[in-house]
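User: Please fill in residues for this 132-position structure.
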């Protein structure tokens, strides 16, 4: 079994992109080195929208990563930087990450919106845009 985690973040202003990229690079490096990480995949979609997908040995390994290091430092900033954010998790038989359309389908079906301080109209409507 593998625990899959998908995030979708849309940055609300270009002003925040340099800091977002800095924190993202640190968090990706942390994820790739984290105990229990099996795979990491990222997508730079349209309109300053960014997706991450990771496979973990189990939910505990993902949570240990999430609440430590660079990722822990970046998470609170996202509420201010993003106008759309969502996350989805599921378990599957293997660690092979799905393609992005399937990740989006699972996010819509099983995911949830994350808190943002300046939500877009789409976020307020509960919509999770597809990867471009």
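Assistant: Residues filled in for all 132 positions:
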């Amino acid at each position: 079994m593998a625990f899959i985690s998908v995030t979708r973040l849309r940055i609300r202003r270009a002003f925040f992109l340099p800091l977002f990229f800095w924190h993202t690079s640190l968090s990706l490096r942390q994820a790739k080195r984290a105990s229990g990480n099996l795979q990491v995949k990222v997508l730079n979609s349209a309109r300053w929208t960014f997706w991450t997908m990771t496979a973990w040995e189990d939910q505990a390994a993902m949570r240990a990563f999430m609440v430590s290091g660079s990722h822990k430092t970046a998470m609170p900033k996202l509420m201010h930087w993003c106008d759309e954010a969502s996350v989805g998790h599921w378990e599957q038989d293997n660690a092979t990450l799905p393609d992005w359309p399937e990740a989006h389908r699972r996010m819509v079906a099983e995911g949830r919106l994350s808190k943002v301080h300046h939500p877009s109209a789409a976020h307020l409507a509960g919509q999770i845009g597809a990867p471009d």
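For context: DSSP finds five helices and five strands in the chain.
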